[in-house]
Design goal:
This protein is mainly β. Helix content is about 0%, strand content about 50%. The chain has no helices and eleven strands. Strands 2, 4, 5, 6, 9, 10 and 11 form a seven-stranded mixed beta sheet that branches. A four-stranded antiparallel beta sheet has the order 1-3-8-7, with no helix packed on it. It starts with a strand and ends with a strand.
């Protein structure tokens, strides 16, 4: 079955850095685009960054542009989110996500359990 397992979250001071990892299994990782989302308390879940299947193209939300970088290692079946210059407003649960096509050709979203990032002095 599809599994996405995030790690790397924690408590960090403003201006600090963290690298989140998402280990994937149960599907053809190298054929799937991967995404990072985040959800702060009382808010909806929003897209943070996307990387295409081969890793040649990435996109990040305007709110994190210039600070966050998404990358992937297809040999390791892992996607990363490097977060630099962290701000208190980056505090959220961060989720790894992919969307796969099922046998009946419908699309299904898969999520990890999330990893908490807290930015505070």
């Amino acid at each position: 079955q599809v599994q996405l397992v995030e790690s790397g979250g924690g408590l960090v001071q403003p201006g600090g850095s963290l690298r989140l990892s998402c280990a994937a299994s149960g599907f053809t990782f190298s054929s799937s685009a991967m995404n990072w989302y985040r959800q702060a308390p009382g808010e909806g879940r929003g897209l943070v960054a996307t990387v295409t299947s081969a890793g040649r193209s990435t996109n990040v939300a305007d709110s994190v542009k210039g600070r966050f970088t998404i990358s992937r290692d297809n040999a390791m079946h892992t996607v990363y989110l490097q977060m630099n210059g962290l701000k208190p407003e980056d505090t959220a649960m961060y989720y790894c996500n992919t969307i796969l096509r099922t046998r009946n050709m419908s699309l299904l979203a898969y999520w990890g359990q999330g990893t908490q990032v807290t930015v505070s002095s």
